[in-house]
């Protein structure tokens, strides 16, 4: 079976305070209500709660095949219903990347990175693949109207290594590895998207253990990670090198903002440990197990669960830290959505072979960025609908009409109750795993909003006609937002 191993690591900062704790207001321009340095003394918490039940008003379609109906690509700003999941979904096209930016790609940077700020008044996307005279970079949008505001002048170690402050809705955080006079200035900074002001939260320059001759903190394809309250971080230290990879992991460390404490430890098989949402330690994953580490890097617990496939960290209703991931013939089984409770050690299957869902479809991505405990969003590429070939032992075409179960679908699931709601077809085909050529950016990167009532997703809309899907790695990739009934009812 063909499987997809993810390119980037799996955890980013969760916007940890409740919506009411965010400073600022609900417009495109959010004036910071607190000084940027206030992020240095965050309140302790377990991730907050959502303002509503994400599943409110959703229809449970179970496991039956659903029709996959032709749907023309909507114009930017136009809201359309998904005809195959009536009542569950309204889809709004956020970008027209070709017309607006003369570029080929506008996407959420990664499913583990929250696109919206903590009060959902702003969001950012990444624009890339510019044509001659085109624009690229991190772009700021109104979080409610989806209107483009401006490009923001930030320089994270990698495109997906930027995170909203958990309390102040005007601030982004990232590690700035600027070079000045031949020296890297490795700094954790807070950036005000309104004013452009940059505030250094912590400078790692001058620490001998963290400063290779030529290297970065947080680079090499592994985003740094933070606890839900934005206090504990996991970092990697990379030595730049020539050749494949471009950087070699030399070591890693944790940093706690409130105490200004740095704890350094070894490379742990070449991966970087990610801070748990609770802040009670870190998690490190390899092919056969996930390890729970102390803040200082000591192994506290190990669970037989693959830690290198697409996945994310979140908290359940009991406040336990949980790692959710796709598993292909893993030590605990196979599934598109399986969960390892890092507090109790219990592994459960939400969508997988043991729950009657068959072998996991390829191209599954998960986002646990919601503050609604236990809720996670999943997008699956699988087989383009109408495909005549056999894909993962599953044939999505019945009697010549395009129908699906999981393939090309977006679902909302709760890891505590096991409830699964199928909400939309994402219609992106350019990253289909069996295609001769593939566009990484066309994989259905999705991000669930802090309230859990909206889902951003990237799509090349290659299944406008599911009975004749178009697999075009050169097609423009735009971002769409799925507005669930719980959001529309606000």
Explain this structure.
It is globular and about 65 Å long. Strand 22 and strand 23 form a beta hairpin. By secondary structure, the chain is mostly beta strands.
Q: How does the overall form come out from the CA principal axes?
A: globular
Rg over alpha carbons: 21 Å
Binned strand content = 35-45%
* Backbone structural class: mainly beta
Q: Strands of the biggest beta sheet: in what spatial order?
A: 2-3-33-32-31
Counting DSSP H or I runs of 4 or more residues, the number of helices is 2
Helix content: under 10%
Mean pLDDT: 84
Low-confidence spans = 1-21, 23-51
How can the largest sheet be summarized?
5 strands, antiparallel
Number of strands: 33
What distance lies between the first and last C-alpha atoms, to the nearest angstrom?
Answer: 44 Å
List the helices and strands and how they pair.
Elements: E1 66-67, E2 79-81, E3 90-93, H1 97-101, E4 103-107, E5 122-130, E6 137-142, E7 148-151, E8 162-164, E9 171-180, E10 183-192, E11 198-203, E12 215-217, E13 225-226, E14 232-240, E15 247-256, E16 261-265, E17 274-275, E18 282-285, E19 290-293, E20 299-303, E21 311-315, E22 321-330, E23 333-341, E24 347-352, E25 364-367, E26 375-380, E27 397-398, E28 401-404, E29 409-414, E30 420-425, E31 446-448, E32 454-459, E33 478-483, H2 485-488
Antiparallel strand pairs: 1-28, 2-3, 3-33, 4-5, 5-6, 6-7, 8-9, 9-10, 10-11, 12-14, 13-14, 14-15, 15-16, 17-18, 18-19, 19-20, 21-22, 22-23, 23-24, 25-26, 26-29, 27-28, 29-30, 31-32, 32-33
């Amino acid at each position: 079976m063909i499987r997809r191993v993810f390119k980037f690591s799996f955890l980013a900062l969760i916007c940890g305070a409740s919506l009411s704790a965010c400073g600022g207001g609900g417009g495109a321009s959010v004036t910071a209500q607190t000084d940027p340095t206030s992020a240095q003394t965050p309140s302790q918490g377990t991730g907050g709660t959502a303002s509503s039940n994400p599943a409110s008003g959703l229809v449970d379609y179970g496991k039956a095949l659903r029709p996959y109906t032709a749907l023309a690509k909507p114009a930017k700003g136009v809201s359309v219903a998904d005809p195959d999941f009536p009542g569950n979904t309204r889809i709004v096209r956020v970008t027209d990347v070709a017309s607006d930016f003369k570029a080929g790609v506008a996407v959420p940077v990664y499913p583990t990175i929250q696109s919206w700020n903590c009060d959902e008044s702003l969001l950012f996307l990444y624009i890339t693949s510019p044509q001659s005279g085109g624009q690229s970079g991190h772009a700021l949008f109104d979080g409610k109207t989806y209107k483009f505001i401006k490009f923001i002048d930030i320089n994270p170690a990698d495109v997906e290594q930027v995170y909203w402050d958990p309390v102040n809705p005007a601030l982004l955080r990232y590690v700035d590895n600027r070079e000045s006079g031949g020296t890297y200035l490795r700094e954790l900074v807070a950036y005000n998207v309104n004013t452009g002001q940059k505030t250094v939260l912590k400078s790692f320059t001058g620490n001998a253990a963290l400063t290779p001759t030529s290297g970065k903190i947080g680079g090499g394809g592994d985003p740094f990670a933070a606890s839900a309250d934005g206090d504990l971080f996991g970092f990697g230290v990379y030595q730049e090198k020539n050749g494949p990879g471009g950087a070699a992991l030399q070591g890693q460390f944790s940093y706690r903002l409130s105490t200004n404490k740095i704890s350094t430890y070894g490379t742990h098989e070449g991966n970087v440990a990610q801070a748990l949402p609770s802040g009670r330690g870190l998690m490190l994953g390899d092919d056969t197990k996930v390890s729970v580490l102390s803040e200082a890097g000591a192994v506290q617990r190990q669970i037989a669960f693959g830690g290198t496939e697409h996945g994310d960290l979140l908290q359940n209703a009991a406040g336990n830290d949980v790692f959710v991931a796709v598993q292909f013939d893993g030590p605990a089984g196979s599934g598109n959505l399986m969960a390892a409770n890092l507090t109790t050690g219990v592994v459960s299957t939400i969508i997988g072979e043991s729950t009657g869902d068959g072998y996991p479809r390829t191209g599954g991505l998960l986002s646990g960025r919601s503050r609604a405990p236990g809720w996670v969003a999943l997008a699956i590429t699988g087989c383009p609908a109408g495909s005549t070939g056999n894909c993962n032992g599953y044939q999505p075409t019945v009697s010549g009409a395009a129908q699906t179960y999981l393939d090309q679908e977006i679902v909302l699931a709760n890891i505590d109750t096991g409830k699964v709601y199928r909400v939309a077809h994402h219609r992106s085909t350019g990253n289909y795993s069996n295609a001769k050529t593939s566009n990484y950016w066309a994989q259905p990167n999705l991000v669930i909003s802090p309230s859990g009532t909206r889902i951003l997703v990237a799509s090349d809309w290659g299944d406008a006609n599911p009975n004749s899907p178009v697999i075009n790695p050169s097609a423009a990739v735009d971002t769409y937002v799925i507005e669930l009934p719980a959001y529309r009812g606000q």
